[in-house]
Fold these 2 entries.
Entry 1:
Amino acid sequence: MKAVILAAGVGSRLRPLTNEIPKALVKVQGKPILEYQISNYLNAGLKQKDIYIVVGYKKELIENYLKNKYPKINIIYNDEYEHTNNMYSLYLALKELAVSSNEDIIMNNGDCIYEFNIINRLVKSQETDVIVCDKSVYFEESMKIKVENDRVTKISKQIPKEEAYAVSIDLYKFSFESIIKLKKIIEDYLKKDKNKWTEEAIQILLNQTIIKPFEITGLKWIEIDNYEDLLNAEKLFSNFTLSSKKALILDLDGTVYLGNTPIKSAVDFINKNWNNFKFYFMTNNTSKSKDDYVKKLKNIGIKNVSNENIVTPIDSLIDFLKKENINKIFCLGTKDFKMELIKEGIQCIEYYKPKEIDAVVVGFDTELMYEKLKIACLLLQHKHIRYFATHTDKVCPTEEGFIPDIGSILSLIKTATGREPEKTFGKPNPELIKPILSKFDNDEIAIIGDRLYTDKKLADNLDIDFILVLSGETKIEDVQNEMKFPKLILKNLGELGELK
């Protein structure tokens, strides 16, 4: 048995993601689409030499991927991919297979993911000449099949729902005899037009050969054409289970709200599940006090929240300053931030007094004035003065767009002084959620946020499940370069409540 994977296309509906990589190498749950297909075929009993992949767009990237991981797989080149369609790609494969093979052939498009049981059942089945299909769904964009007397009589996107037997999942198995017929049909098509879909040729084959439906209803599969499909694939093939969690640690800005605008679906999810989980609201934003955050969350509709639900770097900072006997600081921060420190016995000196000051502490200063920045930089030119920051976020998401966060301020200070903070206390420092870790096991916790370099990194540092929401800073294409993927990627927190 042989397998043919058609992976020559551009994947234009996944741009800008596919500006850099071919669609077959787009990752889902950290693994390229192509790897799902290849590993399934190999686990079902095929050898690398039994697999043929037709490449075109950015072919060198797929070549390098196969060379490093699956060096014995056969590569066929469609150098006309820009003005042909998958029928021509299949023809190039069948030309080679018709000479070298006398076996059944399975073929599929390179933009589909199938769970292993689908491929395994198809490979192990004695049936040939089948179209694999799913009776449980109907998609306007997908090929549908019509069946009469257990024989497929029509395949087309235009079959109405009332006439459709099932949706084709772009996976076919044909006997060698049928392949020879299909090759001849395709040759006749290509004399007139190379820009055709394979299913047009299969429709003619239906009149010459008995082809049956091969049902996989209830098993997981997806065709990935656009960003919506990609997000659905992330959910479909994730093994995250919400029911296993006891505590949810939520980032605030970009996850629960944007600036002063609540993300309604997130608020609804929190209120609906308040008694099902212990909720913690985690923020690196030290421009406000815990009381301010409680007030803000109540104002957007989360009525049961209290100070015990709020996690900020201020607590970790104060604990550290006390342990280090650092009592006098110059504070680059808001009035609220300074008051939190003063309440705990930390003296905030307002002027340039290098002999009296132990450290410069920088928070997210939304009241920043040049004079304060000037004093901080002058103080940091004294080596005995220590330097700390609450966090390192580069930008802060708002309903109007991104604004400079503390990371931008720290960059200014580094440019002027050459110094970087010796310690930060917010995400991704695990110390931030140390009190929570004493109450729950790591596998009982999920961290949910919109940033990879703070929220996800914190979760990775602790080996805690991370859920990325795309309601804030991160875009889905940003995730592709991550060595470890989020456990789940959602448009917003509200989607978590829709999972089964």
Note: The radius of gyration is 29 Å.
Entry 2:
Amino acid sequence: MPSGLPFASVIVPVRNGEALIADAIESLLVLDYPPERHELLAVDNGSTDRTAEIIDRYPAVRRLHEPRRGVSNARNRGIAEARGEILAFVDGDCIAEPSWLRELVAPFADPEVGCVAGELGHAPGDSLTERQSTRMFGAWQRYAVGSNPPYAITANAAYRAEVLERIGPFDPRMPRAQDVELGLRFSERSGMRIAYAERAVVRHRHRATQLGFLHQQLGWSYGAGLVAAKYHALDGRPAPPPRLRDVATAARGVGLVATLRLRRKPSVPYRRLYLEDAWFGLLRQAAWYLGARAGMLRGRRIFRREAASGPPGGQGATYPEPPTEC
């Protein structure tokens, strides 16, 4: 950058992450970004395990405490305490590449860039669910940045501090999909653009079990339903509910693939992968139907009062769905 590297604050929210937080911190301690030009903030979101103790083992990391539950509250605590002109976010279950921060900050050399989204890679996993998640999500940050409107998945993203001062921090009423909601506000209020930094990579650990995958998908879709309800209440933009026929279509797909496997016709190639794809597609569609509808119902009650104060910014496109595949 013309005036040298900006000072960056790396904010890591974590709750009950004793199994993973050490790996995340140690990956951040070997960043090739000058130590005097960045700080590491780990926000303990009311952990009841040894997370705080593990964070305190690393003198280079400043531990913050946010007792109010929710990753939005944790990130907002980091924003309030950060000293950087660039605020970089990474999750406590991710592992950063050594060049991550340098690559993530580089696009801010363009004064029109207010947010940078780095790519989310996939940590190696041995379980069926981890392998399937890797196939299903693909280059999921590229998907998010290419949505209409674009947004940055906050497990690997950075904002100018002045931008968040202008448009506001994360909405604490959003337990999930808070990055989608913030992306909407960014597009409508900031007057700046999102840049995609493909080489700014952190590797995400996927859920190891099918139950964990289903819980994750329910959370994402519930958050997306809240986003839809919020903006429908504020400015009347379309908020169509998810369709049951999409679940039925996914269920028929599972049945067709299972039938193909049982018949084993020599003329029709079959791979176990087909059944796995169909099954996890059904899980996702069912979660989307249930979670998004629940989020929309809850959101209508939450944002009813707020509607009287007017929209957060002009009319815009409807909210994007959570990332599914590349």
Note: Residues 140 and 189 are 25 Å apart (CA to CA).
